[in-house]
Design goal:
Helix 7 (134-226) runs antiparallel to helix 8 and helix 9 crosses helix 10. The chain is an alpha+beta fold. It is 60% helix and 11% strand. It has 11 helices and 7 strands. It folds into 3 domains: 11-132; 192-259, Helix Hairpins (Orthogonal Bundle), CATH 1.10.287; 267-414, Histidine kinase-like ATPase, C-terminal domain (Heat Shock Protein 90), CATH 3.30.565.10. The radius of gyration is 39 Å and the shape is rod-shaped.
């Protein structure tokens, strides 16, 4: 079949034209209608993709076969006084083979029957002047049977070729998915290595900072106790010192939480109650933020082998991010929990979809890295800690959504029974 995208003659076209040229120099040579029909056949075979390019694919294939049958029938009509006796009946192999290569077996046989009927239609005018002998009927039957034989053989090879191509396509998709998962695994290994290095650095740095912070805070408290109430400026400055040391102490605590090894106490847990507690905790923290929470929890969810406290912390951090993203104008937070499979494992997926500004495509690969943040005054450890907890549970976390229309975080946690 011709390639719809081609623009120049290919060697098959040259062979096709040579074949038609050979027919043109055979008797009847001086029959102008025969020569014009051969020209039409050659042009249609070469230009078929362009002539029918705008037609819907299913109709395009049918129209192509119809035109070929009509041209084949027209050629026979101008190659013999009694067309049914024409040696050019073999031209019907053209539409028959095209149908066999294009359609499945039932369609190929149906189009072959139509081509045979078009050929047999010349029997009607012939019988007005001639009698159909037993030998003639046998010859006609043989010609028609060979049409069907060619259709069956070609269709079998074409069908097997299509199936083989489909198998190759499926194998290519599987390989591409495997490569993608392998890249994700490599990225997780690299992230784990970065987390380990940064964790050690964070722990050492946090311990070094915490001691002088305690001295500064204690000194400020003693100074504030000894200041006279009338000394407004000094009291205000002492208050600044206390508040900023408190904020810095909180940041140091986050560093330590991130740096210290997790002590996970896994137990079979039902995930929806943990999510509900996280939603309530964040709502109580921001009761005035106009966020509508929409829940969609699946039924008969498997239990997951998790640390309830750490898992709840993961959900709290993700809900906090959603609230902060929608704090200004409000919005909707959809929480979906369903059973799913990931990397061949059965488990539960928790999806948080907000209507905030979303996460830009170019930073999605970095948001789980330590110290990466887009928030003013942020430390960049919230999502890194989330990733660390989920990874320690053998799960996964992915970010999606459309920038400008909201973000989506999907957390997968393996089921406790580990069944496929």
């Amino acid at each position: 079949m011709a390639d719809p995208e081609r623009r120049h003659l290919v060697w098959l076209d040259v062979l096709w034209l040579a074949f038609l040229g050979g027919l043109a120099v055979l008797n009847p040579i001086l029959e102008i209608h025969k020569q014009l029909t051969l020209v039409a056949i050659g042009l249609f075979q070469i230009l078929e993709p362009r002539l029918l390019g705008r037609v819907e694919p299913d109709r395009r294939r049918a129209y192509g076969i119809i035109f070929k049958i009509l041209l084949a029938t027209l050629l026979i009509a101008h190659t013999r006084t009694v067309p049914i006796e024409s040696s050019y009946y073999l031209i019907y192999y053209w539409p028959v083979i095209s149908a066999a290569m294009t359609f499945e077996a039932p369609g190929a046989l149906a189009w072959t029957a139509i081509a045979a009927a078009a050929y047999c239609s010349y029997l009607i005018p012939a019988l007005r002047e001639y009698r159909l002998t037993a030998e003639g009927a046998s010859e006609l039957a043989i010609r028609i049977l060979f049409l069907f034989l060619v259709a069956v053989v070609v269709n079998r090879f074409a069908t097997e070729s299509r199936r083989q191509a489909e198998r190759y396509r499926a194998a290519a998709e599987t390989l591409a998915e495997t490569n993608r998962q392998l890249e994700q695994a490599h990225e997780q290994v690299r992230r784990s290595e970065r987390l380990a290095t940064l964790g050690q650095l964070s722990a050492g740095l946090a311990h070094e900072i915490r001691n002088p912070l305690g001295v500064i805070k204690g000194s400020a408290e003693m100074l504030q106790e000894r200041l006279a109430p009338s000394d407004t400026l000094s009291n205000e400055l002492a208050g600044y010192i206390l508040s900023e040391t408190g904020r810095l102490n909180t940041t140091v605590a986050r560093f330590l939480d991130f740096a210290r090894p997790l002590r996970i106490e896994r137990r079979p847990e039902t995930i929806p109650p943990l999510v509900d507690r996280a939603l309530k905790a964040v709502h109580d923290r921001w009761p005035n933020v106009r966020v509508e929470v929409e829940r969609d929890y699946g039924s008969d969810l498997p239990r997951c082998l998790v640390d309830a406290e750490l898992s709840e912390q993961v959900f709290i951090n993700l809900v906090v991010n959603a609230y902060e993203a929608m704090a200004t104008e409000g919005g909707r937070l959809r929480v979906e929990i369903k059973e799913t499979h990931w990397n061949g494992r059965r488990g539960v997926e928790v999806s948080f979809q907000d209507t905030g500004p979303g996460v830009a495509e170019d930073i999605r690969g970095q948001i789980f890295n330590p110290f990466f943040t887009t928030k003013r005054g942020g430390v960049g450890l919230g999502l890194a800690l989330v990733w660390k907890i989920v990874d320690e549970h053998g799960g996964s976390i992915r970010v999606g959504g459309e920038p400008g229309r909201g973000a989506e975080f999907r957390v997968f946690l393996p089921a406790a029974d580990r069944k496929l």
